[in-house]
Amino acid sequence: MTDAFRPSKALNDVRYEIRGRLAARAQEMERRGYEIVQLNIGNPGPFGFRTPETMRLAMIENLRSAEGYCHQKGIFPAREAVVMQQQDRGIKDVTAEHVFMGNGVSELIDLTLRALLDPGDEVLIPSPDYPLWTAAVTLNEGKPVHYQCRPENGFQPDLADIESRITERTRAIVIINPNNPTGAVYSRELLQGIVELAEAHKLVIFSDEIYDQMVYDEAEFIPMATLVNDTLCATFSGLSKVYRACGYRVGWVVFSGDLTHAQSYLEGMDLLASLRLCSNVPGQWAVQTALGGFQSIHELTDPGGRLYEARQAVLDAVAASKYLHMTAPAGSMYAFIGADTKLLPDFDDNQFAMDLLEKHHVLVAPGTSFNTDYNNFFRITTLPDPAVLADVFQRIDSLLNEYAEAQK
Prior knowledge:
By secondary structure, the protein is α/β, with parallel strands linked by helices.
């Protein structure tokens, strides 16, 4: 019998496996009493991370002012705080009128693409990517075109590969730095090369910088907007990761660069923002305190800090495994880990993830969830305590030993 209430055909090419079939199975197992170590998503709260108290107090103290709709772009103190951060980073000529607050970066990705794309327009997106970017381009009738950030190149973009994929239909390029899922952090020289390509072809630069202060060791985060002059740059960030406030659903996008030729586009953004009235108001009152206050993220990412030590636990476990390899993440809260296909020639990331869940009660995200053309990687979050991660890798190696024995 035909389903009378079929979904839109627009969903046919949309994937978001981070919260897909595997996550649904994990939830079912939890209802049956199993304890699942959920490493599929970067959600700090369940791992004991707290939003800074000053942010909570700022929100509580302004609840009376948060009961009505605010301006479609967001409350002025939040937008002005974002402007001050941008100016401190050397990004000039930005005002509060160039800032849009959203219900997380996720909503703003959709709005910025919807305001830009006509059917068939192309957007360059990294592979591996954060899959919302690919999905949002598809849902807005665009065509995602993936440029390669290969494992053998440390997951760094290749400028020649990017240039080879630019066509007359290309409208924009997406940069995710620090990167999710790989943890790669891009050098000034590489970013400058991407900017030169974008400016030469008049591409909008969408710079996803939600992990901007989450870097390790000698890695340096370079704000993309500091390098852009002759095209439009949209910088995305928010409270969810650096400030451990995922549930507040507060993100922002800042437009800079060539604003003179972007007025009609920004008017389109204003229209779309108006149609959804406004974003979550209570959480916006935490923005000024967050950006202007003590940056506690550095205590977590410096040596001895919890995120730093958890990352080190992953590095140690992968180094000790004869089956696994990885490029050390220089930023973010993830590790993108590969299985050695010489030792495990039949390795399949989706089957591995399901077996790991069913047999060892650990939930990870298969690498192909991030739009790769290879299937021997998986992503985990590095949020758990080091001891939990050490135990997880014992379970992983146990499963990989089973695979190796079965292939003899």
